[in-house]
Amino acid sequence: MTRRTAPRVADDLLVHLRRARDLADRHYAEALDLTALASTAGVSKYHFIRCFASVYGTTPARYLTERRIERAQDLLRATNLTVTEICYLVGFASLGSFSSRFTNLVGMSPSAYQAKYAAEGAPMIPGCYVFMHGLSDRR
């Protein structure tokens, strides 16, 4: 069995890939698609997928999903928002897909995760503050 090695990415492309990753980090809650990320990097979407995966060890879609789940974890720990509100705040369009991806990545359901931290954590931030001031990392 032969082992395939990841293709080498040109050094001048790294800056553009980083710019696309930064876009995903800043605008994770928006409807980002592969075309938008690839155009930010200035390459075709197929080349972008290969290069992004080679550099960051994951596909752009999986990276964006992980970023959304990380932010959802923050909100579930710190606010009194419902799981459904958090699902939509972090950019998922479906509660079912959010719950299944959250469970796959974290190892427990969003509601179980929230209950765990509600029982042992600090007082929750009221959801109205989150909605009034927006998500602070999006500014």
In words, what does this structure look like?
The protein is mostly helical. The protein contains eight helices and no strands. Helix 1 crosses helix 2 (34-41), helix 2 (34-41) packs across helix 3 and helix 4 (60-78) packs parallel to helix 7. The chain is elongated and about 50 Å long. The longest helix has 19 residues, at 60-78.
Order of helices and strands: HHHHHHHH
Largest sheet: none
Task: Give the overall pLDDT as a whole number.
Answer: 86
Give me the number of helical elements. Answer: 8
Number of strands: 0
User: Structural class of the secondary structure composition?
Assistant: mainly alpha
**Helix coverage percent:** 55-70%
Oligomer: single chain
Low-confidence sequence ranges: none
Shape, please? elongated
The fraction of residues in strands falls at under 5%
Distance between the termini: 49 Å
User: Radius of gyration, Cα only, in angstroms?
Assistant: 17 Å
